[in-house]
Amino acid sequence: MLASPGQLELGGTWAPSESEVAQSLLGQPLPSLRLAATTGGEMNLATLASRPVVVYMHPGTETSREVPEDPDGLLGSGCTLQSRVFSDHGAGFAGRRFHVIGISARPAEEQRRFCRRERLGFALLSDTELALAEAIDLPTQRAAGGERVYSRLTFIAHEGVIERIFYPVPIPRRNALDVLAWLDRQGTVL
């Protein structure tokens, strides 16, 4: 019998937990991988990470229904709220010389509609084949429909290397604020 992730049974096999796998990403270079961007064309992850970048992985983008009147910006799925807060705090990231990129396994056209609807101030990348997950062993999960999607994870990369991991991300609407707080504790602007 196999041990559950992160556990070792007498005579069994140890398997790392998702958190341990995510933390093993520290120091890994980002692969040269071209993904469709909501800005049109493709973006290469290795090129993006040559300068300071915050990349948040999210399971999806909700575009199947109209957005209800939402004066407080609190309605929507976790992915919608996460994206809104990153966009709302774009000046905070730009002031620290970081740019923000979101990546999900949703098709590029769906993500373009989502970007327009939410007026995001940054590009989303489409990785329908989960090529990045395969290249650097990012955690994924099964969505309600059975398709494989990215687990919610955020990383900071600079000079092509992953320098910080935020995983798990239990409260999507706080993710951008947690990243900014961590950057403030570092006391430097790249």
Overview of the structural elements:
The protein has helices spanning 18-23, 45-48, 78-88, 90-95, 108-118, 131-136, 175-186; strands at residues 34-37, 42-44, 53-57, 99-104, 124-126, 140-142, 148-150, 153-158, 161-166. The protein is an alpha+beta fold. It has one domain: 3-Layer(aba) Sandwich (Glutaredoxin), CATH 3.40.30.10. The protein has a 7-stranded mixed β-sheet with strand order 2-1-5-4-3-8-9. Strands 6-7 form a two-stranded antiparallel sheet. Mean pLDDT is 86; it is low at 1-5 and 68-75.
Q: Which terms summarize this structure?
A:
190 residues; alpha+beta; Glutaredoxin; seven-stranded mixed beta sheet; two-stranded antiparallel sheet; 29% helix; 21% strand
Structural topology:
Blueprint: H1 18-23, E1 34-37, E2 42-44, H2 45-48, E3 53-57, H3 78-88, H4 90-95, E4 99-104, H5 108-118, E5 124-126, H6 131-136, E6 140-142, E7 148-150, E8 153-158, E9 161-166, H7 175-186
Parallel strand pairs: 3-4, 4-5
Antiparallel strand pairs: 1-2, 1-5, 3-8, 6-7, 8-9
